[in-house]
Design brief:
Strand content: under 5%
Order of helices and strands: HHHHHHH
Number of strands: 0
Shape: globular
Structural class: mainly alpha
Radius of gyration: 16 Å
Helix content: 55-70%
């Protein structure tokens, strides 16, 4: 699957709009048993895992990591604008499963590398509207709101993991230590 320039631009916009501040372990001691390149490659997706976990947790439950697994936040700030989505029971159940899967991803990464505090995430409907408007190259009326319906939440649910998946696919062959590849 090749990535077009518009897909790459869209992915970059999603990251920059929803992750206003990302972190690296350069200021926090990491697992010294792994090569630094592996630590860096594993920690970059940690930003996306925080994003996915918080989006799905808030969408399904109306609250996030602060309540579900506060130790995984490492004291990072609470997300901005996230809220419980309007969706039917079946969709909510699917989103709950996505949320718990992302919590597991955070645990797996943090058991391999020390990590860093959760970054400040802007999960507001306005941020998602900016990303979707950019993808359509025009402002939608009404603005896209992932929390307004189950269908909208599922559409937004597709966007976020897609960005993470492309990052993992690109990073995986560059990992050097076999322990890193298990994360």
């Amino acid at each position: 699957m090749s990535l077009s320039a518009s897909n790459i631009t869209f992915a970059a916009l999603l990251i920059f709009l929803l992750l206003p501040k990302s972190y690296s372990s350069k200021t926090i001691e990491s697992n010294s048993l792994l090569p630094q390149v592996d630590v860096d490659l594993l920690e970059f997706p940690l930003n996306l895992e925080y994003l996915e976990a918080e989006f799905f947790l808030y969408g399904a439950y109306g609250y996030g990591l602060n309540k579900i697994a506060p130790n995984l936040t490492k004291g990072g700030p609470t997300p901005i604008g996230a809220k419980r989505g309007k969706m039917d029971k079946f969709t909510r159940d699917v989103i709950k499963q996505f949320a718990l899967q992302e919590v597991g991803h955070l645990r797996a990464i943090q058991s391999t590398v020390k990590g860093f505090p959760r970054p400040l995430l802007n999960l507001s409907a306005k941020s998602f509207a900016k990303v979707v408007d950019s993808a359509f190259e025009k402002q939608l009326v009404p603005s896209f709101d992932p929390y307004s319906s189950g269908v909208n939440f599922l559409l937004a649910s597709y966007l976020i993991p897609y960005v993470g998946l492309t990052g993992y696919v690109g990073a995986s062959p560059k990992l050097q230590d076999p322990k890193s590849k298990k994360s």
